[in-house]
Amino acid sequence: MERGRPVACIPVYGAYELFVQCFRSVMAHTERTTPVLVADDASPDPRIEEFLNELQATGTLEHEVYYLRQERNLGFVGNMNSAFEAVAPADPVVLNSDCMVDRNWLEGLRDAAYAESRVATASALTNHGTILSVPVRNKPHPTLPQDWTLEHAASAISDGSLRLRPRIPTALGHCFYVRRSALELVGLFDEAFSPGYGEEVDFSQRCLLRGLCHVVADDVFVFHQGHGSFSVEGRAIQDEHEELIRARYPYYRDAVKAVEDGSGGPLPRALASARQALRGLSVTIDARVLGPQLMGTQVVVLELLHALQRIEGIKLRALVPRDLGEYARALFDEMPDVSLITPAQAEAGVAWTDVVHRPFQVSYDEDIQILRRLGERIVISHLDLIAYENPGYFPSFETWQTYRRVTRQALTYADRVIFISSAAAQDAIGHDLIEPHRLDIVYPGTDHRLAALRPEPTAPRGLEDETEPFLLCIGTNYKHKNRLFALRVLEQLQRHHGWNGRLVLAGPHVPFGSSAGEEAEFLALRPAVAEATIDLPVVSEPEKGWLLAHSCAVLYPTIYEGFGLVPFEAAQAGVPCAFALHTSLEEVLPPETARLVPWDASASADRVIDLIKDGGADLVSAIQSAGARFSWDRSAAETVEVYRRAVKDPVREATAIVTEAVRLEQVVASVGGEGMSLVGPDAVLPTEMRRPLLAIATRPWLRGPIFGALRFPYRLAHRLRTHGREEGDLDARPAASSSREDDYEADDLGDALRDTAVRLESLAEALTPTSKRR
């Protein structure tokens, strides 16, 4: 055997059928120049040796296959030590006989093992392997997802792998590569762990303590049936070896738990990539904006959802409000593959998706918290910075500062942030709100496809019989919407062009930052303009459709827009739109389409009257052409790419802090004050007894019964402590002088709690295995 050359070592004891499957997969997917050693631990079934002999006799073996049979059953430790010595000085690759491999399995393991000089072992991903289990993290499963073969699973995981080579605290026994230099440095498996269980943990820790490390070959997937390849003589041996591990390496159990629970680092990213390869990308959309009223934001959210659900390989879930609008409910009925959850369900706890996306801005602290409960990675769409920059849009300076803080936190905590234009993104960069490498620019679609969101146009009240031509100005009366300029344009049309039409101002009135006062003053001094002006503070989508269809032109004098949908909506209705070229409009529309002169009302009126007279067909056509590149299919596809980048990016410290805070909040909520008095910083129980309770606290099906059972001793302990304090206060005695009867009661309680904790620890250990079980 050559140094550095891998040798596939298959330990076997019985389980003939599993061995044959394993061996055939190795023969089919391993280079012919790679030796294979079958380490038979004195199996009682003679068919194993007979099978190999028959293959040898018929000449069907194309590999170097060696058969090493023990004279007596040694157990896994002795059997593997013999194999390690037999293949020296080559590198042994341990493959349990209840596993099957696919293409490039050995090449991937060797590449990982030699990724750097300090690597001792490299372990493969699997369906049944504790911390390396996929597709469900930390939850071994004996089968592959439905409709997947091993070939498909291994290829998909390999093709999608980031090859991060994550560090782990121990080799995983189903399949791991061992470098000969590690064996020479720390020795073979310790015979103290014979016949088996815990030996690879001990070997791995000896390597770690000497400065070596263990990695994951995150591009290799091995199917593990988990039926066991040797016999361990009962639970007593397993418990004994667990105690030995605990005595030698008291940190080990906590180290594994930290890996299981960790949200940061390469391992969660590697597992997420493998999970997506097997199951597709899972996404939760925060759609709580879909209330009873249908407005522009609701249209955008539903169009995005509908476009996303048309993309293959995306599993969608939507967080909807309690008062979900009927329009949205009807559309969700047409999207059966989109599952719905409510805020109450999210608060109670639901499974995380790979990504949670809020497709509109975050306004409150609670929004950040609920997002972290829904997905491993957060994506936020931020539309514009007008409110962030403008204190006049808030009732007080303090309120504005709170909004700014929430905005900063949201953009800091998000894994990635989507802006709907380069102008909006540059604003955020200018405020130091986000690093350029964490943002993406994804334009919304302008080709709204959902017929249900385009109801039959309905005339607003008072305009049913309107025969006069009118201009339409759409938008709230925030000052940056510049409705006052629209009134000035109307005045110039009346004075210099004798135009007798009207101006309809359609949009909600806002309580702060409103131009209502300026508009009122302007109209009070110009009766002719006032008489021709109609203000509609509430306009539904059917009414908006009617206004667009019946207007002769749209005035859009806004000063700041994150994108600017109005010109495209007008063009879809066949109506010309007059706007000025600035902020996002400068990048989404060609220069020749601008008709307003900022901010010259007379010059703008000269251009608007031409639109009124000739109908603006050329302008409509130009805007329609410009809008053709902004489709919802393209927007959804680019958004999915943002999701994928979010999953692949390293977890940032700010995100990890929020994740841990939410987890702690969930534990507190689940176990209550009494439970935290048992496991919290000032708990009744000693530190070493809190871990199993915390493990149980994270399991909904156990936390209720267990913590319910513990309420009685907790309350008794509380009464004893309170009684002791009261006695000390009344008699002015130190606690040490309390009665022996109280001491006996406290001692009995302590013993009872400790006994309970020991039992819980065993239960938690069974639920959260800390080393491989065969």
CATH superfamily of the largest domain: Spore Coat Polysaccharide Biosynthesis Protein SpsA, Chain A
Q: Which oligomerization state do the chains in this entry correspond to?
A: single chain
- From the spread of the alpha carbons, the general shape counts as elongated
Beta content: 5-15%
The gyration radius over C-alpha positions equals: 34 Å
What is the strand tally?
Answer: 21
Helix content: 40-55%
- Secondary structure category: alpha/beta
Specify the CATH class of the largest domain. Answer: Alpha Beta
Which fold does the CATH topology of the largest domain refer to? Spore Coat Polysaccharide Biosynthesis Protein SpsA, Chain A
| pLDDT averaged over residues | 86
Number of domains: 4
Regions with pLDDT < 50 over 5+ consecutive residues?
Answer: 228-232, 724-746, 766-774
What is the count of DSSP helices, taking H or I runs of 4+ residues?
30
Largest sheet entry: 9 strands, mixed
Cα(first) to Cα(last) distance is 29 Å
Just name the CATH architecture of the largest domain. Answer: Alpha-Beta Complex
Can you tell me about this structure?
The chain has 774 residues and is an alpha/beta fold. It folds into four domains: 6-276, Alpha-Beta Complex (Spore Coat Polysaccharide Biosynthesis Protein SpsA, Chain A), CATH 3.90.550; 282-441, Glycogen Phosphorylase B (Rossmann fold); 456-630, Rossmann fold; 655-767, no CATH class. It has 30 helices and 21 strands. Strands 1, 2, 3, 4, 5, 6, 7, 8 and 9 form a nine-stranded mixed sheet that branches. Strand 11 (314-319), helix 12 (326-333) and strand 12 (339-341) form a beta-alpha-beta unit. The two termini are 29 Å apart.
